[in-house]
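Hey forum,

I'm writing up a methods section and want to include a predicted complex as supplementary material. The small molecule is zinc ion. I've pasted the protein sequence and the SMILES. Can someone with a working setup run it? I'll credit the forum in the acknowledgements.
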Amino acid sequence: MKQIRNNLFILKECKIGELTSSIYLLNTESEDGLILIDTGFNFEFEREMKQIGINPRNIKHCLITHGHYDHVDGCKALFKINTKIRFYAHQEDSETTELIVNNDKNLNFTVTDRFKEKISNLKLGKYSISCIHIPGHSPGGMAYFSKIENKDVLFAGDICGGAVKNGGDYEAFKKSLQELLELKADILCDGHMNIIQPSEEVSKYIEGCLEINEYLHIGIDIDPNDSTNWYNLALVSYQLKIYDNAYKACLYTLHLDENNLKAKQLRKRILKHTPSKIIEDIMSEFGEYSRLEK
Ligand SMILES: [Zn+2]
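Reply by user p_vandermeer:
Happy to help. Structure tokens for the complex are below, copy them as they are.
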């Protein structure tokens, strides 16, 4: 666990290629107790929080950014600790969230507070939190925005994930990210890339996410056989430090254009940042792909 501001912590830092999300913790120092933002995948709250001297039973609210399993699976463990925790999600992602959580025997978990408006306001302790509907990555994506010790802090879930195939919406994603840019947040607590600050870096990052979405879109809808698209995607991913994506895109580039010198150089640079286990996994996945293509 790391402290970001007084009362704001990152409880679980996400590493590249790890199958979970980052988890954030805000201490309201009031009757509202602790607030969690997302719950990660397979996170043992009881054990991990006690190790650092925090009582998980003081968690009273859980704000969910969206209903993908790597962000909501941990609701199972939380609900077992205390069934009175209030879980907040957008109406559009509530059902998938409940399906994922109730997959674990008869838990009878429900999303207690479902957002239906574009913006709803939540007052927890001394914090006023704007809860903003940002569809695009998923239909019920939510961002949470609050002033925390004089800094504007934004929790935005998976904006680095783009408009994914299942439930994503390319046009909605662009609009949502433009809205987030206008907030001019000082600190971005990202769903997978952890903490991004100061304000200029946050803007750069959100613009990068828009760009990567654009390339994904072009790559998928216009011409997946154009190696330039894949190289551009590799480059953007590398700049965003999403090294596994960057590596895959490099391999696709070389698959289509084996003499691409720029892609070869970029591949070497990515290798320096990526654990060998991830490279092995990508290679075996790519092996399948190249066999299918030939
Ligand atoms: Zn997601």
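Some notes you might quote in the supplement: The longest helix spans residues 199-221. The domain at 224-293 is CATH 1.25.40.10 (Serine Threonine Protein Phosphatase 5, Tetratricopeptide repeat).
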